[in-house]
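Changelog-adjacent note: as of this version, every example in the card shows the full chain rather than a window. The one below runs 128 residues end to end.
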Amino acid sequence: MKFKVLAVVMTSVLTLVITAAAPAAGGLSSPVDGVGTASAAEVSKSQAGGGGGGGNVAGAGNRLGDLLSGWAVPVITVLAGCLLVGALASRNMGASLGIVTVSLVGLIFLLAPQSIETFAKGIASFVF
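Full-length structure tokens:
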């Protein structure tokens, strides 16, 4: 029984990794005039500053955070749901409560980081 559960979990993780690593269907572009023309045009456009920012790294952390939160919220939700179903199936209420608490704090942190910051500052001002 434990082997079947492990096999299902590993298959799900493997499927998720393969899906995430697969190239997008619409992301491929073919050069019009010859081999490498589209790539050369994109590079010169980026170096000239007329393209996608021209080396502008201002706000890179915010963009990375938005990208990661876009992926992390569904992943945490699915993972917490699977763990919660397993904990409830074994009638372990302590683990169920822990899973719900940790996943809610994680989701709140990803969706509204200002609220976690305010909460932490409130605790710090009370303690110190």
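Structural remarks: The mean pLDDT is 75.
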